[in-house]
Batch of 3 targets.
Target 1
Amino acid sequence: MELALLLFLFLFNLVALAASPAEWRSRMIYQVLTDRFAQTDGSTTAPCNAGDGVYCGGTWQGIINRLDYIQDMGFTAIWISPITQNIPQSTTDGEAYHGYWQAKTPVFMGLIADKFLMVDIVVNDFAWAGNPTAVDYTAFTPFNSASYFHTYCPTDYNENQTSVEDCWMGDSIVALADVDTTKSGVINTYYAWIESLVSTYGIDGLRLDAANHVQQSFWPGFNSASGVYCVGEVDDGDIDYTCPYQNYLDGVLNYPLYFPLTAAFSSTTGSISSLVSTINQIKSTCKNTTLLAPFLENHDNPRFPSLTPDLSLAQNAIAFALLADGIPILYEGQEQHYNGSDVPYNREAIWPSGYATTTTTAPLYTFVAQINQLRNQAINKSPDYLDYMAYPIYDDSSTIAMRKGFDGTQIVGVFSNLGAEGASYSLTLPDSGYTSGEVAVEILSCANVTVDASGDVAVAMGQGLPKVEVEVFKGQSDRAGVWSKAKAS
């Protein structure tokens, strides 16, 4: 199995890049739950009922075989689920197909050629298939004694940070023994292990599971020992709670944005004003918004289409997340408009979709590819695009317009929550940075508009679809070049 991991990593990264946070900023991440993405034999008919919570047969080789599916959407990095050895038991809570019930840190895995590889890492706990009061610690590696763990207590999530850090998650079926990361032996072992793991397998970045369940003082040394970009999971929408973790790690998943973003676009009555307020507060509170990781879905939260089947609302929410400050993440299946609700139903296999890629069979696949191409073009045209913090230039009860990029290279996105039944109308945008007489191109509808004498841009809205103004030119002679670049795959 370790040879398989080595092969996977070799094919994924022909050169170990050990990518820095600065190098990650231009990347776009596709999140893969390895067991659910692709089978080695390429099957699209193998059964997989997400509700059963058992292994379905996805493999690293399957990922390798389907890299073109990911690459053709414009993604430049892949995040795979944990690679350590998990408990083997089948329990009434299901099996460890997801990779988060680790029992041994020695790698139980195999690579993929110009993409960054991010690996999910579990530091906080080790899994035991049974009651938390009956754990056999000798089953764990390398922490094979109770002395390495906190004494059992159930986690109290009600604003009790000591309990969050010191007590156990899990239940009486699968207990998650909480590692005491204040002990010098644990600290030294983990730091040495992550340094070796990253260098041995050419890993470029790490996603750190349940980062807020580990003492903050543990993380700077771990981040440094890894030598790569580390983004922590702090599953909390409180900006004042989540942002300070950037003092200990390079970045965090942008849960403070996730909650108001989902609320704003999952309903035609969603609050745009709350989203605007959150954006401004994140910018003023978080240490570096360019190293946050915005997302709309993941394996722990209900899929967006489980909240609304409206395709226009999904397009607005997806585009907003992909064009937000930071390093955007798309969870496998979003591009197929999967609608699984909560765990485990949001962990569907991708292969029954047939990996559809056409506008008629998978409209979100082609839509995501367009948005990613726009972001890639903006970065290639002006690297300082990444330094510019996006901000709202317009909002009303159903619309928010965002600008990102300095004059001449800016992207202006207009996002609506009116839904597919939304009426057609013209929206006048101020503060776009465009000047009178210039022509702004709306890339998604292939339309263009001349900026008026006041510098305002009239955007034709309809059917609740997002609009993205991305190019400016002085005369019609430039138009062919604009479109040939924008349409390139």
Target 2
Amino acid sequence: MAHRADAKRMLDERGYEGQTIHNQNPAHLLEKAVRDRITDSYYWKEQCFAINEATLCDRAVEMSYLGGTYGQQKPTPFLCLALKLLQLLPDRDVVLEYLRQADFKYLSALAAFYVRLTFEAVDVYRTLEPLLGDYRKLRRRTKEGGYALTYMDQFVDDLLTKERVCGTSLRKLPQRTVLEDLGQLEERVSPLEEEIEEIDAESEGRGSGRRSRSGSGSVEEVRAEVNGNGRRYSGSD
């Protein structure tokens, strides 16, 4: 098919003269084996042909899970649309609109993945860290083909801390503390910091001799959450 040949030329390592990201063809931010599986997939051939930034949204809002490859190395629609974004290279304002809109959580997750792949390190932290307060539930397709429950903040935390997400090797991200020491990022204040201070104040008010075990445990529980990604679970989760 003609569009199949066009896709192959766009992904070819030879003779690429378009816009680069991190000094390379943007499509090559996904590994060659992953790209080949994507361009061989039915979803890519039927759903990703001749789409633009607007029609890509239509595909994204239809997604009901995220993930990399599953079963016999079949790529998810999430991964196919990530490659399509790397080909389209939408303006930053468009990507941020995808990310910050509140109606379609898998579109936000797709944009977060794209930000992690393409933005510079400082911008990755600045753009994605606000989503550490987003507790929407997400379904993740497992390698075995089943589904697992995750959350938006956990997905973003994985993007910020792991080197492989959704079956994709990510460009190494400097630790946040290194960028803070260089003066490129301000120290991040946990959204639970105020709650910790209130609990500490209440505990000190009781006096060390009368501090209850449950009160002390509450402080430690919150501290543990701050040392993690800051998400507090409720019974409804």
Target 3
Amino acid sequence: MRHRTLLTLRTLRTPSLSTTVSCPALSPPQQPQQQQRHFDANARSPFALDKFDLALAQNRIWAHRAAQSDPHLLPTLAKGQSPEILWIGCSDSRIPETTVCGLKPGDIFVHRNIANIVPPGDLNSGSVIEYAVAHLKVKHIILCGHTSCGGVNAALGNKKIGGIDAWLMPLRSLRAKLSKELEGLGQDQKVLRLVEENVRSGVRTLRENPYVLAAGKERGVVVHGLVYDVGSGELRELEVGDEEDVVEARLQAFETV
């Protein structure tokens, strides 16, 4: 349920006049009635709270309700975390993973970047993966792309953007690989196709990670590829299974001891 924070303005009562006016034709000045006006914090108004102030106000409400609905949740989280899921997703503001999965704080360990790219040698994502798999002992790794992805749209175009161009190079490589297939598709279909292929590519990279390989053998950690539909709010799981010979070849090539 969405909560509104209201601002209340009260007009000030005009002080009484102390000077007597000797003009019988004029009635004495009327005291203005006290008025109360409410302003919606989300309305476009000079009195509206910006999103940061609203976030702080809403946080207090959320914390109070969380404590009421599950008194043990926050004190338990204060002692540590034991998430079962590592989520690797896009930085896009429209995909808050804990919310769209209907889970609670502490359920998902998270890494997000532009276009949910998983470069093999990236220290940032690599550190998250290592910590989640080797220390937190997650059971599932989710790599999630999404429709209407700005990074994918940029990779499908040829406009120079800036520093992000280097980050999008893996997507451009996938675009080149799929060039013949993409030629016959409309723009939305091109985006979705590249989104899906980016997820599949990232899943392959994750499965080649030595920590993920070891955890898969030792305790059955599973890597999943998902696509989130921004328009419907639904997650769709991609078919990312491997043949037995592919799994064996991967173990031979990437397993380290």
